[in-house]
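Project standup — Tuesday

K.O.: blocked on the structure for the chain from last sprint. Re-posting the sequence here as requested.
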Amino acid sequence: MRRWRTVLGATVAALVLTSGGAAQAAQELHPTTKANLQAAMHAEAFAYAKYTLFAEAAASSGHPDVAALFGRTAGVELRDHFTAESKLLGFVGSNLANLQVGISGESQDLTDYARWAQEATTDGCDAAAELFAEVRRDEAGHLVRYTAAVQALVDPETGATVPAPPTVTPVAVRPGPATCSARTVPNLQAAMAGEAFAYAKYTLFADYARATGQPQLAALFAATAEVELREHFTGEANLAGLVGSTAANLRAAIAGETEDLAMYGSYAAAATRIGDRSAAELFREIQRDEQGHQAAFHDALATLSPVRHAA
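H.V.: unblocked you, prediction finished:
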């Protein structure tokens, strides 16, 4: 929790501005450590997105304390764990490099979502097919905006400017079971993982753009991140049945934190054997945080009334 308090505000700018030094340090990391950092970042991004939806559902169902717990924990996963791991990995680059990462990701999304939409149609899940097609159209728009932003940075004398950010139309969280089956279920899960990671990386890219005097680019990254989370991830989560009752969400969170404890223990041990001391220390510190999250979720579950607990 300690790093969470210090990473806010101006410290975020200081952190992202050191990305050049972090990139140099990352070159010295063992490939196994780099791969583990990348996997951990994906896990933290998904945890942030999941807990954000759990918080909204808890608030809507009359559990403000649980909602606050989920919200606080989500913040730690993104602004502490994901951010620290990205710094050690040297993940954030220059504004131009970050745009290129965005272009590459959005281009892959066009391919993935076209396939997922076709498979959902074949599976008979029209709702998923329609959502995948809609998300693909959004991603195509993101690609166009990022490409134009590159032009604005590379050759500003042409008069090119960073495009206006996309409009965000939040989707309401709908707790309930999955509405699709067959291949569409793992496709929804893969899509959610991608959207969660996109939100997290674009949030850091926005931080860096803002810290380096590019407010328009920061606004583009930040709004795109919100589309990925509030529209795409949430819509996919509704179809996948990610969100359940408050009790069910707490149990899911406990299970997730239990998996993370094992993951970080394994990563810390591997980094120690390899000699990547900084990574080992970070993994162990995050593991301690996750243990605290697990305990807090257990306590929250225990405080629910028997009737609500059984829901």
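K.O.: great, moving the ticket to review. Residues 2-310 form a domain with the Ferritin fold (CATH 1.20.1260.10). The chain has twelve helices and no strands.
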